[in-house]
Amino acid sequence: MRRGFDSRLKQFQEICDHFFCQPFNAYLCRISRYEACSLARENTPQERRPSLVTLFCYVVGSKNTPFPVDISSSLTINHLKEKVQQERPNLLKEIDAAVLELFLISLPDEGNLATKVEGAIEGNRSLSSTTEIIEIFPNDPPQKDYSYRVHGSDLARSVKRPATRDILGRWRNKRPRLMIPSTVSELQTLINTRLLENEKIPLDQGRFDELLGTAPNELRDFLTLEEANSLFRVSDTEHTALLDTIFFHAAFFPPPPLNGTENSFHSFWDANIRNVIQVLVPSGTAIRNSSQHTATRKLRPDFGYLVVPLEVKKQVQGIPKIPELSFCGNSTGIMVQYHIFWDFASVDLSTREGRITHMRWLINLSPLLQDLADLMPQGEAEFQPMIRDHCTVELTARHVVKTYTRRDAAERIEHLKGIYHQLIEKGVPNTDSLYYSSGKTIVLQPRSHLAKPKTEKELLEAVSCVLQVLKAIHPALIFHRDIRWPNVIRRKDDSSQWFLIDWEDAQEAPTKALKHFASDSHSARVFQDGHGGEVDIWGVGHLIMESGVIGLSHEVRELGLWMKEKSPSAEEAWTKLERYKRSCLLGTSQL
Asked: Which residues form the Crinkler effector protein N-terminal domain (predicted)?
């Protein structure tokens, strides 16, 4: 009887070999299981008990011959998937066993086998992963004294080609690099560009139909076929697990009730904004104002996405000046508005049509974000905490947020509040000011540019601004004591104006020595008790000497050296500086 079985198995393999001679289709593979099994003993029911089952599997379109898989009938379909994957790891690479779909069909061993397999599984449901093999094949394996007839009891599975990387690549290369729209109308045209067919996200027919379905309580949210096709397309040969998860989820699921709190919309906003942008521009970092009730209040945008310039990202993490893409909602939390210099587009996220339109806008806009980031000058990182010795510093669009981390936080803040109060009371120009404080956090304004002067003219403007501060505070016996370029910043809206900031070490007379200062950037007098304005004047002279300005005149260098060595008063230093500036205008350049 064994010889008869082998003969029939050989005939079956010839059928499969004929099938495998067809051209290989890289986009559609189907795994099928063929089994040689017996007719049940006539009039005698077989007892259900576990046994070893040998299944023959094949991949439609490949040139591989059927391969056997031995499995106990006491195991489940999920175990069978793992066995199939283990038997052909190269054939099924990048395919997780858990996503395999197995179908049970019965075919005669004649005719066009491929066509029959395709037809047999059409419209059928795949086998449940928890189903035991014995439930599918309840009879005992054939006995030697029984007659056999070879027929197919098949398990077929569709293996789809991964397409996520290809589609993301098409999105990111939708237009030539650095061709940035020059007008708002060009930008509007860009975001409304239709996606090409191969740029759309593939869904199987069932998933696509699910997107079009409308529940009785969602009659207002009717989605037409044309609207769905603007972002998705039907495909039974591709799978995009990541894009399916992110984009289908965002399009399909409605927002929470409009009478809910703002917090109830956070997951909805994340699904439609944050998750989508993170897929499109993975080099960025999402931020949101999660502390509106604390010291930061409304200093951060409700949501922002910080895009890192590529060259800077390769060198250091989290340092560059970062362009922002901000979103702000109305009272219902549904509308999304894009702000460049004014609102140029809005969409209603409460409908599937609106959510699909919004995602298409983001796809078209995303290549532009990285280009803009690459064009931005390097500077301070916004909305990202920077760790200092005794505090963290965060820069917002207009403010500087300092959160103190040491035990003396309250003492430091009270000291600063006292200093800033005196600066306001005495009308001191060219300084920052206290905007708000709470707990261990203090907020200062304005936020300006941290930059050193590039020309002698800019250097003289900066030094003049600092000396004006010292002219106002020294008569009141208040001393800054830490005048260095990191504490001299440039005003955003007027490049000729500079501010003296960081008043943490400022003190009224009598002063105490500051042992923790660096000797190469501070006057030797600051390390002694009882020092005064001379340490600030020394610092101004050091600003000149360490400015790094190329082609600095001999007269300006002499001015810096004079301040460091002779310790003039702030009034004397400012007068001499202004005299030199006037002489430059007259062409004489004399101190």
From this structure: 53-144
CA distance 301 to 493: 21
CA distance 424 to 436: 14
Which amino acid belongs to residue 575?
T
Strands 152-162 and 238-239: parallel
Question: How far apart (Å, rounded) are the C-alpha atoms in residues 387 and 64?
Answer: 59
User: Domain spanning 386-445: which CATH class is it, in words?
Assistant: alpha beta
Question: Beta strand pairing status for 386-387 and 391-395?
Answer: antiparallel
Q: Which architecture does CATH list for 456-586? A: Orthogonal Bundle (1.10)
Contacts of 109-116 spanning 24+ positions with Cβ under 8 A: 109/11, 109/12, 109/15, 109/150, 109/151, 109/152, 110/15, 113/15, 113/16, 113/18, 113/19, 113/152, 114/19, 114/22, 114/60
Contacts of 359 (CB under 8 A, 6+ apart): 231, 247, 250, 251, 272, 276
In terms of phi and psi (left: phi > 0; alpha: psi -120 to 50; beta: otherwise), the region of 476 is alpha
- Chain centroid to CA 93: 28
User: Are 409 and 440 in contact, with CB atoms under 8 Å apart?
Assistant: yes
Q: In whole angstroms, what is the distance from residue 591 CA to residue 583 CA? A: 8
Tokens at residue 244, please?
A: 């399916």
The residue assigned the tokens 């079985």 is 5
Report the distance separating Cα 274 and Cα 285, nearest Å.
Answer: 10
**Cα(109)–Cα(82) distance, integer angstroms:** 27
Would you say 484 and 516 are in contact if contact means Cβ atoms under 8 Å apart?
no
Cβ neighbours of residue 26 closer than 8 Å, sequence gap 6 or more: 61, 161
* DSSP per residue, 516-553: TS-TTSS-GGGGSTT--THHHHHHHHHHHHTS--TT--
Is-contact 334 193, C-beta < 8 A? Answer: no
Compute the distance between CA of residue 240 and CA of residue 247 in angstroms, rounded to an integer: 10
**Cα gap 481→477, rounded to integer Å:** 12
| pLDDT, averaged in runs of 10, over the chain (591 residues) | 51 44 32 35 49 70 64 84 80 68 63 58 69 74 32 41 88 69 81 92 90 69 91 89 90 84 82 90 72 46 64 36 37 41 75 94 86 62 69 81 90 94 95 91 83 92 97 97 93 87 94 93 95 97 93 94 96 95 75 57
Quote the CA–CA distance of 462 and 589 in Å, as a whole number: 18
Domain edges within the chain: 2-160, 166-282+332-375, 386-445, 456-586
The vertex-531 CA angle with 406 and 544, nearest 5°, equals 90
What's the 3-state SS for 430-488? CECEEEEEECCEEEEECCCECCCCCCHHHHHHHHHHHHHHHHHHHHHCEECCCCCHHHE
